[in-house]
Amino acid sequence: MPQQEQQPRFFVDRSLGRILVPKLLRDAGWELITLAEHYGIPEDEHVADVEWIEEAARQGWPVLMKDKKIRYRRVEIEAVAQHEARCFVITRADLKSTEYAARLISNQEAILQAAGLPGPFIYTVHADRLDPLYPKDRTSE
Fold first, then answer.
1. For the whole prediction, is pTM greater than 0.85?
2. Residue 39: strand pairing partners
């Protein structure tokens, strides 16, 4: 019997919340760890984005996050590049937690496929697709 490929463990940033989105993703079969679970509460509120990006990349965890202005945050993009992080970002700030989870779950196959690729990259997660944000010429192959 062929061995099934193991799904990666994803790192969920505080921007997606500590409880509902992680619960909905886990209910859908995702393996993940939240920023709060990794760093503890209340320490999770004080961890700089560049620090957890580096840690997630070092651990081999693709990142799930919400950040409307990620494309303008040069220091975070530099951290993604330097540490070869693999990131999936929702750039909408006006959705409910259930909608963020639904957006990730509806793109689960594409996210899993892209998560198997080497970093660095950032994909934006839309309702029906992934688009490369960094580097711009990347495709989900």
1. yes
2. none
pLDDT of the chain along its 141 residues, tens only? 344 457 899 999 999 999 999 999 999 999 999 999 999 999 999 999 999 999 999 999 999 999 988 888 899 999 999 999 999 999 999 999 999 999 999 999 999 999 999 999 999 999 999 999 999 765 544
What is the rounded CA–CA span in Å between residue 121 and residue 98?
25
CATH code that applies to domain 9-132: 3.40.50
What is the residue-wise DSSP string for the chain? -PPPPPPPEEEE-GGG-SSHHHHHHHHTT-EEEEHHHHH-TTGGGG--HHHHHHHHHHHT--EEEE-TTGGG-HHHHHHHHHHT-EEEEE--SS--HHHHHHHHHHTHHHHHHHHTS-S-EEEEE-SS-EEEEESTT----
To 10 degrees, the CA torsion angle through 105, 92, 23, 51?
Answer: 110
